[in-house]
């Protein structure tokens, strides 16, 4: 690959493809004319070497364990900012001034209620329905309520829909939790910050006042920051693909929620805690590490490994610190799960297999322990991931709509099925 082009030779023909460089990170080869000029497609089923778009929102350096949101390191945002400030940054591209932040907080706070009719949706579900199934259904139904913000060609309507999604996800997530446990819904309160409002909607009951613990709400807010956005991960790519057809933003976010649910993606936080519970004690760790290394065993260490991070996930480090803060604040001394998790991490990080395959703990490894300590059942863990990731999805969706190069996403294939053949009547089969 030269400075500005790459030569591709196929079928005795060589063509020159232009290359592009970003601000930081790998260059790309623009293969847009490849099929027209060679009759061949590229083949990359997991998109391990494929850039789907240009983006200014998030940059990840997997080898160095670096995560930047609009250029700011996740460590600094998690330390100094709050979740709504990160939402503003992801949506608008710059950190807000004091007045911009106050205005943004006010606008989000005053969109937190959902249409009263929406509460009727929940009654159609069984109480033991997985909350992620409820989220897929209820969030998709939002488009039936907000016809005034589904014209995706109108930047104002796009921003209204964006704010509505960020504001209403905590309310819907809390309603899914309350319905799951058979308690009445709790309305948002406008004098609480985003994370405190969410914790109160989840854990308050009509019989007594709910006092927010500032240490726990700060931890919840930081957990939201850590999950806000992550480049072109599977669920974000799902939202972009759904949006490329012109689908309304609420339907696109519902598609992202569905994709995030998978245990290889956002569902890993629930799977990781279930795995730690199944391991149960430090003595049983070697048995599970051996299963994870056994090619014939589908078992994987949930919360380990990553498509991009081949070093420690910087979010996992911050999450581990938050875990200790929350357990300390709650006076949970020797949590058996944490003991297993830390010993499992120590063993895995010194094991030749994990070193060779560059498998490190990812954000989902410690989040489950923290969320369980905060009082959430494991079935709510991916709901919390979806709540936080909504801002990333919606920021990436806006960027896709505004990108002049974006067209409907329509990949091709390598066909390996039957060649053309004639129909046989059943008497001749
Ligand atoms: C998230 O993309 C994102 O940014 C996602 C995310 C986000 O913020 O949006 O970061 C959130 O999804 C984090 C990942 C959560 N998932 C898990 O923790 C589930 C466990 N991890 C694996 O399923 C896996 O590591 C993936 C899915 C995360 C990554 O899969 P890849 O990149 O396709 O890697 P792979 O499956 O091809 O694995 C490479 C090798 C394989 O061995 P070989 O076939 O080369 O011999 O590593 C092995 C795998 O068997 N391997 C593991 C392992 N993960 C990979 N072996 C044991 N345990 C594991 N966890």
Automatic annotation (TrEMBL):
Recorded GO MF terms: citrate synthase activity
Pfam families referenced in this protein's UniProt entry, alphabetically: Citrate_synt (PF00285)
Keyword Transferase: yes
Any one GO cellular component localisation term in the record: cytoplasm
Top-level taxon in the UniProt lineage: Bacteria
InterPro entries xrefs: Citrate_synth-like_lrg_a-sub, Citrate_synth-like_sm_a-sub, Citrate_synthase, Citrate_synthase_AS, Citrate_synthase_bac-typ, Citrate_synthase_sf, Citrate_synthase_typ-I
Pathway assigned to this chain's UniProt record: Carbohydrate metabolism; tricarboxylic acid cycle; isocitrate from oxaloacetate: step 1/2
Reactions catalysed according to its record: oxaloacetate + acetyl-CoA + H2O = citrate + CoA + H(+)
GO biological process: tricarboxylic acid cycle
Protein keywords: Transferase, Tricarboxylic acid cycle
Catalytic residues in the record: 306, 364
Family, similarity comment: Belongs to the citrate synthase family.
The protein, known as: Citrate synthase
